Amino acid sequence: MAITIIKDFCKGCGFCIDFCPKKVYDLSEEMNQKGYRLPRPVREEECTECGLCDLYCPDFAIFLEKTKKKARPKGKEGR
Ligand code: SF4
Ligand code: SF4
Question: Is residue 39 lining ligand 2, measured as CB closer than 6 Å?
């Protein structure tokens, strides 16, 4: 999953950090223009693409882009 935090939308609530089952996010030292400390994805390789962080972010500050392709079941090629 490619994870983008839209910095100026974030209010530093930490929901993405708390709700990610894989602990992909950590709190960074970086602040946005409003003075909120920003989360950062530090373990993106652990992401299961569950979408919870996007779902729980109250400020639409997380943009997810799927990078993993789902494997096709065998025998379904060439339909
Ligand atoms: S999509 Fe799921 S696993 Fe990936 S960062 Fe968000 S909450 Fe964590
Ligand atoms: S849930 Fe959204 S607003 Fe809250 S810290 Fe994460 S990115 Fe920022």
Answer: yes
